[in-house]
Amino acid sequence: MNKFWMTIIGIIAGIIALSNLGPMIGLAFSGLIIYIGVKYYLTAGSTGAKIWWGFVAAAGAISAVSNVPAIFGVLALAVLWYVYKNWNEEKFSAPVKNDPFTNFEKEWNKLTK
């Protein structure tokens, strides 16, 4: 894929990631609430505490469901990462010609090192 198309795809993915930044932050916060609720639910000793932390985890889950557009933002970040990692990678290399002078220069450089 040439750099023009990678640039276009990167710009589009960046716009999508920035437009979904709010839902991604909300999803991360909801995941934190779920994690805290489940962690304290498992360590709670009384039934009242288990009900409370179960309620907290359920509220976090409902909040996470409302932030489903964040998945598009996460996918856009993955595309941006792919474009970044493959920016300088050349898929096609130039054919090697059997020019005796370039081969001589390569061999001479190997011998003089």
Could you walk me through the main structural features you see in this protein, from its secondary elements to its overall organization?
This protein is mainly alpha-helical and 113 residues long. Helix content is 78%, strand content 0%. It has one domain (3-88). It has five helices and no strands. α2 (21-43) packs across α4. The longest helix has 23 residues, at 21-43. The two termini are 37 Å apart.
Rg computed from alpha carbons, rounded to a whole number of angstroms: 27 Å
- First-to-last CA distance: 37 Å
Principal-axis shape equals elongated
Estimate the strand proportion.
under 5%
Relative helix content:
over 70%
> Which residue ranges are poorly predicted, with pLDDT under 50 across at least 5 consecutive positions?
none
Q: Could you state the oligomeric state of the chains shown?
A: single chain
Order of helices and strands: HHHHH
